[in-house]
Amino acid sequence: MEVGRRSAMEYSNTKVGKPLKMKVKFVDDEKDVVKASDALPLPLYITNAVFFALFFSVVYFLLTSWREKIRTNTPLHIINLSEIVAILAFVASFIYLLGFFGIDFVQSLILQPSNDIWAADDDEEEIILKEDARKVPCGQALDFSITKMAPIASPEPAPKVAPKVFEEKAMIETPPPTEEDEGIIKAVVAGTIPSYSLETKLGDCKRAASIRREALQRVTGKSLEGLPLEGFDYESILGQCCEMPVGYITIPVGIAGPLMLNGREFSVPMATTEGCLVASTNRGCKAINLSGGASSVLLKDGMTRAPVVRFNSAKRAAELKFFMEDPENYETISMVFNKSSRFGRLQTVKCAVAGKNLYMRFTCSTGDAMGMNMVSKGVQNVLDFLQNDFPDMDVIGISGNYCSDKKPAAVNWIEGRGKSVVCEAVIKGDIVSKVLKTNVAALVELNMLKNLTGSAIAGALGGFNAHASNIVSAVYLATGQDPAQNIESSHCITMMEAINDGKDLHVSVTMPSIEVGTVGGGTQLASQSACLNLLGVKGANREAPGTNARQLASVVAGSVLAGELSLMSAIAAGQLVKSHMKYNRSNKDVTAVASA
Length: 596
What we know:
A hairpin with a 4-residue loop joins β12 (492-499) and β13.
């Protein structure tokens, strides 16, 4: 396998200004390692042939000689000169052949992992998953210290020194695997060690990721050069964020703002690879700030889960529907539901019948967590309780898609899911012309024909906006939210109206299903936690549970308002293509990059 065994010469010609390449050099590189066979006077294959012939010749001679002694009753310990020479030749050829062919075999027996530790057992998967969820720190802590460099004395002006130091930065060298790791890598490649069990077996998350990465390269024959491995706390994702890691990706984070929202200023972190997005949102924030800021109102706060159950008849399904929606039963059902969490509190249950199947949409508050796990545990408690009075109820699934999670659905657009927020601002006419480079009448007309009429013609579901998902995705990635929930969280209708005799612009966004949290999942990762801290909503609010998550939802809505305002202005002024040509196109020679 050629992956991971390239000569260091392939990487030694790195030029200044090009992406830094990893220099990988293994001890089994045939070009660099001095071989023992180089000391032989004859080619290796001739030497092997000579010793093979010598070995079998002396064995044949000695066996023939000893058979003759046995036939003539001659003692075997009496040997002549020819037999002494034959014995010496036998010993010499045996030692050579053992050294050439036997050492690797013996070492493989000695160094191979114990079968008791590394035996691949498919039945262990559940146990391994439970072990991986342990709270005990896994492996040694990563060293994030940065070596301080002494200042470089130079008579040249200071501006010339800094780039020189940067350009001469040494290449990062990835060391080859140790003998022990090499054996584990080979076992993973061979399938005798499950890749998913490395963290549990090794007790070192960083080492497990490194071994899995090298095994993947050898199996696929594809290099992962460019995907970072170092500098990440792999312990922090164990059992909650990502399984079987082999590295991590880097996404640049830009800051839009400050955004003046409800009398407070927020610097909004946005993780994106789309040029112009942060700059455009920042311009919208500027227009909002110069006009006195925006205000937001939380309309509803409740996460949902909707199991599907089946009966033998539609009548029985309807009976359970009436039971669940009867106000007299609400207190009992809520007590059963609320046992699952300190923060999860049942709000409503809405039922829908389809034949003999019943869908029950539970809605509950979830504190500062996004709350999917919380509401699921409460629903499971209620289902177990209902089995007593409805023993013929067959639970098909704890999620029946009536929730509805990670899918565009009218039920979220109408009923809401997560946080329902409306955010508005009044943009002064002079700000529209000076900052946004357009006018109020043009914006109002464009919004009606594009966001409202155009979306209706397209049959949009919750998509009556210009690009709400752009801002939602960027903020979600930066703050550790579930990116897949961008689907329903981007449900948004943007409204624009001329006020004050057409001089000023009233703009608003209504978003019925923003699904965010400030605890759990990716919010606890270092980078995402830092972005939450920047917004002042890191972790749980101890004094008023749920306040941080609701504040984050308001910031998302306010950021969408800024993004909508700026993009619509760019379209109205005919600047969209020009701005994207300036900020969203690379000046690099694509053909040169592809051939590098």
